[in-house]
Amino acid sequence: MSELRKISRREFMKRTGQAGGGLVFALSFASACQPEQQAVGPAAKAAASVAPNVYVNMRNDGIVEIYCHRSEMGQGIRTSLPQVIADELEADWDKIKVIQAIGHEKYGDQNTDGSTSIRQHFDLLRNAGATARDMMIAAAASVWGVPAEECVAREHAVHHEASGQSAGFGDLVDTAIGMPQPEKADFKDRKDYRYIGKPMDTIDGMAFTTGGAMYGTDTVLPNMLYASIERCPAFGGKVVSFDDTAARAVAGVTDVIRMPDPTAPLVFNVLGGVAVLADNTWSAESGRKALQIEWDQGANAEHQSDTYKEALVASASAPGTTVLNRGDADIATDSEFEAVYYAPYLSQAPMEPPAATARVNEDGTCEVWACTQDPQTARDVVAGTLGLEKEQVTINVTLLGGGFGRKSKPDFIAEAAWLARETGHPVKVTWTREDDIRHGYLHSVSAQYFKAGMDADGKTASWLQRTSFPSIASTFAPGVTGPAGFELDLGLLDSPWHVPNMRIETCDAVAHARIGWLRSVCNVFHAFGACSFVDELAHVKGMDPKEHLLEMIGPARKIDPKDDGGEYTNYAQDLEKHPVDTGRLAAVAEKVAEMAGWGRELPEGRGLGIAVHRSFLSYTGAVAEVSVDENGKLVVHEMWTCIDAGTVVNPDRVVSQMEGAGIFGMSIALHGELTARNGAIVEGNFDAYPVVRMSEAPEAIHCHIMESDAPPGGVGEPGVPPVAPAIVNAYFAASGKRIRELPLRNAGLA
Amino acid sequence: MAIEFELNGETVSLEVDPAMPLLWAIRDIAGLTGTKYGCGKALCGSCVVHINGQPMRSCVTPAATAAGSVVTTIEGLSEDGSHPVQVAWRELNVAQCGYCQSGQIMSAVALLERSPNPSDDEIDAAMSGNICRCGTYTRIRKAIHKVAEDQS
């Protein structure tokens, strides 16, 4: 054992402040998510380098620095992004170094949401690697005086077969400096991929297993203050007055500051309240508990979940605005069936609550370290909050301890920046779990109405669907009273059902909370409603649910919702390149049913349920096997999933996303519900807002990835939508009881 | 007041309020950030450390409780990430975002020390206090079984 270490907070700061140029985490950050600012350290300076583009920097010591401009939140992008670049570059995997990019427009789109990192950047990343490769080839060709066409790159070197000459990438850097930077290069043949399509190990594996991984909450700066903020229970309310006498008396508390009042629309601005600052997290939280605050609860103080639910159901049960129409959905049919489904508010609840650290420098510039999904928007919001130009703001992106959409909103970063300027100290704002669950951007509560008409043959002849939910758009523009256009893309207008007469309507719903994105967004409730209703129709018709599902999907065809008046934007992608292909959806349904042994003899009391859905340009399916245990609780024994995401980069990370989506979807099905009372969210922590734990996890979650050379679709979100309806459908198969409201906990099943 | 204990093999003396949860003493005062906050109420397990070999939720354990004890955090499990549980975690690529994994690993190590070849039921019982929002549970089960198999 070494000598006794005495550590006070002051000594800790002094000790760490002397090292690493004043940044504590410069010492330990190298293990994961090293931010761009720290990249210019001694090692990088020692090596001359050439950067063919903003994503690649070739060093003359042979190291290839790859800038990851997308945020890592568990989807594995810090592994799969370099896989794409290194493959085209012909770089050796053990000679690459991943550097986390700051928020900057030079990188293009950095908003890590919408499952876009691979699907929208695959060709861009390939080109980044391929142009770097061609630059190395050009350098070698000029040294050797041979045509570039005769040279090939392979295993981190360029080779000229005819003369037998070879040169490592590092040895070519000095020559390449100053040479023209190619803008376009040919891509490799799919059959020659070295990393793409391979299950590479997670690049941050060592950091994840040793405590070295640095998240937003882990930043420490010299003289930093820790802030905890009490916010108004009701969304949009504000402080009337407060007494901070007791708070200031708490040891360690240095200041108490009233935050700026929120103004509508709330967007990503600070949410108001009172901040307590201290020299450690616990003192800040203790001081906060001692605050006495009188609130003006504001315009949403009357918001109650129970009455709001009734209003939503009533809204969805009456005619709305037609957003898609085919044939005549009111045509007379032989029989009709209708149902209403309800799903509540949800919280993303990432394991790391929102956390950000900001420092305002003497020259007025601001530097931020934060777990953000969207560093460019964070930069804009911080600049707006402080009245700076965005060029004066630097956003360093840490690892994200989960995101699920919450961390695409930089309100917590604006809080840190504002407090840093107010106090003259670096400030770290850490949200408590209760803050996260009560004051976040809620996933919409929704009601879905369906009516189907069957002809004399029992085929579905008409389909009427209405959706009602408070819109995300309401967070950005006051007066929005119903679903917005982009939300209709999310599992509504691309309805795959082969029904000759179809009408889809949207119905009013006024927002009383900050509404935001949650993993797969409106696809959650649109798939829950549609896939439950299709399953119900199977039983109405006396058909096997899987056979009926395939009948409803119908023949393989490509759907263009515009043909039926639907203003569909296809996740911002071309329908030619990424069609709504019912053949692929049906293939996923067939495959996932086969995996689960659909139709096999099941033990008494067990049931299988199936659901499929297209979202973010990918096709996914889930089958759940469930029963009810002796305590009346639902048990999900096993789950089978299938995804057709076109070309995939890292199949192991795709599988892990599907496994995770299975658990995330189970939490939605079994537990998830936020309740508003007098405008405030009642639940606050994992006791009242439970999520699935190990004891509830299925014995296995199987995943099959469809072989495909189609362009990449999304992966992070598409696994979620089919899970809840598969479970609800399985419960019906097991029990004969139909549940039309989530979560199943309210039916006593969890 | 100074609270003295052994932290990852080194005797430390932390000048903290004895009521400060050990989590914040470890993170904010001792400067070891591998132990995570997730709930503050012993509901999620992100903050699990070992006190005298027992897995404890440091977010509800007053720092004073640690006085005279041996405290091990994720950073102290091995010098180079070579503990069999850490190795198995990497071999199966268990982590997604990684945030909860310090607590998961500390709980798994404690389980395997007391039950070297745990059944699924034992694993579920020992690990259900650790929430993983990314949903890595099935891989955690596999990784624990792998450690048991490799060591038998």
User: What is the multimeric organization of the chains shown?
Assistant: heterodimer
Beta content of chain A: 15-25%
- Biggest β-sheet of chain B, characterized? 5 strands, mixed
How far apart lie the N and C ends of chain A? 49 Å
Q: Whole-number average pLDDT of chain B?
A: 97
The general outline of chain A is globular
Helix amount of chain B, in percent?
25-40%
Inertia-based shape of chain B: globular
* Number of discrete helical segments of chain A: 20
Task: Provide a concise account of the structure shown.
The complex is a heterodimer of chains A (750) and B (152). Chain A has 750 residues and is an alpha+beta fold.
Structural summary, described in words:
The complex is a heterodimer of chains A (750) and B (152). Chain A is α+β, with helices and mostly antiparallel strands and 750 residues long. In chain A, 28% of the residues lie in helices and 22% in strands. Chain A contains 20 helices and 30 strands. In chain A, the strands form 8 sheets. A 7-stranded mixed sheet of chain A has the order 11-12-9-19-16-17-18, sandwiched between helices. In chain A, strands 14-22-21-20-15 form a 5-stranded mixed sheet, sandwiched between helices. A 4-stranded mixed sheet of chain A has the order 2-3-4-5. In chain A, β16 and β17 form a beta hairpin. In chain A, α6 crosses α7 and α19 packs across α20. Chain A is globular and about 80 Å long. Chain B is α+β, with helices and mostly antiparallel strands and 152 residues long. In chain B, 35% of the residues lie in helices and 15% in strands. Chain B is built from 5 helices and 5 strands, in the order ββαβββαααα. In chain B, β1 and β2 form a beta hairpin. In chain B, α3 crosses α4. Chain B is globular and about 45 Å long. The N and C termini of chain B lie far apart (46 Å). At the A-B interface, β1, α1, α8, α10 and α19 of A face β1, β2, α1, α2 and α3 of B.
